[in-house]
Amino acid sequence: MEAAANAGRKNASLNPVRFLARIGLKFIHIFGAIVVFLIVWELAPGLGIVNPVIIPTPSVIFDKFTELALNGVLAENIFISLRRVAIGFGIAIAVALPMGFLLGGWFKTAETAVNPLLQVVSQANPFTLFPVFITLLGIGELSKISIIFWVCQWPVLFNTVTGIRNVDPTLVKMSRSLGMSKFQMFYKVLLRGALPSVFTGIRMSAVFAFFMLIGAEMIGASSGLGYMILQAQATFQMPKMWVGIVTVALLGMAVNLAILYLEKRISGRKEEIAI
Amino acid sequence: MSNSNYAGRAGETDIKIEAIDVRKTFSARGNGRKDVNNLTTDALGGLNLSISRGEFHVILGPSGCGKSTFLDLVAGLTTSTDGTILIDGKPVTGPGPDRATVFQQYALLPWRTALGNVEFALENLEKDSRKRRETAVKYLDLVGLGDFCGHYPFELSGGMKQRVAIARAMAVGPEVLLMDEPFAAVDALTREILQHDLLRIVYETGKTVLFITHSIDEAVFLADRVSVMTARPGTIKAVVPVLLTRNERLSDDIKVSEVYTGTRHKLWELLKEEAAKAGVSG
Questions:
Q1: Is residue B184 part of a domain?
Q2: Quick one: pLDDT at residue B99?
């Protein structure tokens, strides 16, 4: 593989035009679909396919985006929203991860006993729980952060339990035959073996966190991206609304990429599956 | 050492592993079957066996006869219901670095490289990580995987994975190597090469080996002595010496020799009955 990379580098130094062409091709391969989509969107109002008042062109949205970015409105709302996500999501991981490890690894009897209850509770649609949270915790930050926490904890908890359960039992047998203590086995084999599943849970939670964030900010808030979107819609500032929509999408993507990067850093190389 | 057979005949040599009247009973989980009399299964029913120091001993038996149960007991992974297993005259109380096990399913950590997997076994024994690495490389060299240190298990073939597992077992410096059908999951050609290489390594290092298989050919090719087990509850039905020198096994094609075919036939006769019994009962 290294040889191939070297060969590629040699080629590049010999023929910069071909090298650039290859990079260009790669760019088109990866981002081509997005570019085509944006071009069609840009042209659609001119062709009379969509109403530009309701769905402005990307260039109009981008102009509004720079305006809001420069006057600080966007940054302020992003900061407020991200803080809510970070706290709710952070507490969820801090609670559900150790809980999952304990239930999956050490207290299997307890897990069997509480699992049906957890399944039922976690199935409650979080939007239906909004009134409960607001009644109990008011309409301030606490209820918003709590609802994000509530939603985020389940995927982390269940995936951690499953991850530990699915660690190959022969690995446990092997480490026992090497005379490892229970504790060593736990953190060298079970924890490490559960990691891929744990990260799947964390990524699911991140998606849910943004769902609930926007929901919470649309139901009862006076700041944040969800509020910004709703308020822009109410006052018919469509470009501003679209800036909010695009920003939320980009933030979600960025967080997902950050978690993927972290996962790659921690778990190292992975088998690539070709179908 | 590779020129002579293991130390000698029973009686003259000291005993490395001794099993005295070993019984193991599992409480059966029913599996929906209304059991006839009680809810227990006798896996081992009073097994007696002595294995000499430096001997390559193969246990041959029909499936479900309790071979693996016996190996787990020697490894110290489970305890017997009754009877004792002695190693160097001392009862086995748990796993220890004097024994190392090679499992049929490789049991490699998928997130570690070949080198990392061998180092894993040394983490309790050697504090210095540089020495750990040196030892691991040495044993990967021994099994012929010196060039594959940085490969992850998913990048290795079945035979290579089992070589890594053998290197890991050897690296802890055990006196006894316990092997639980280690070559059952690899293809026939790879199996022959692995068997040959295993003999070479064992002869070079002088380990005592307890090897479990249900393949008669494998038993005859590898073993100094073969124990044939009965169907459940497992006991030793007969112990058959394989009168081939270690040199012959490594150099000639012994599979056509008279000793080989004769021993093979004898083992088949012994096993046939038990296989039929196991087939009826289980």
A1: no
A2: 92
A178 → closest Cβ in B95, B105, B106: B95
Number of domains in chain B: 1
- Specify if B174 maps to a domain: no
In a domain, B146, yes or no: no
Write the CA distances from A275 to A30, A272, integer angstroms: 19, 10
* B227, B254 Cβ separation under 8 angstroms: no
Domains parsed from chain A with CATH numbers: 2-43 (no CATH), 62-266 (1.10.3720.10)
C-beta atoms of A180 and B124 within 8 A: yes
Pairing of strands B56-60, B40-52: unpaired
Residues with Cβ within 8 Å of residue B182, at least 6 apart in sequence: B102, B103, B104, B162, B165, B166, B194, B211
Beta-carbon contacts of residue B61 (< 8 Å; ≥ 6 apart): B67, B214, B228, B229, B230, B231, B234, B271, B274
The closest CB to that of B154, out of A168, A179, A271, belongs to A271
Task: Give the C-alpha separation, A38 to A36, whole Å.
Answer: 5
Q: Which structure tokens are listed for B83?
A: 């009877």
Q: At what angle do helices A225-234 and A73-101 cross, to 10 degrees?
A: 130
Q: C-alpha distances in angstroms, A17 versus A10, A20, A23, B247, B260?
A: 13, 5, 10, 64, 68
Pairing of strands B15-27, B176-180: unpaired
Domain assignment present for residue B244? The answer is yes
Q: Which two tokens stand for residue A105?
A: 């690894």
Whole domain around residue B278: which residue ranges?
12-30+39-98+208-282
Q: B198-255, pLDDT tens digit by residue?
A: 999 999 888 999 999 989 999 999 999 999 998 888 888 889 998 888 888 887 678 8
> Residue B228 belongs to a domain with what CATH number?
3.40.50.300
Tell me the HSE value of B56 on the side-chain side, using a 13 A CA sphere.
27
The token duo for A99 is 């809980």
Question: So what's the ipTM on this one?
Answer: 0.84
* A246 in contact with B, Cβ within 8 Å: no
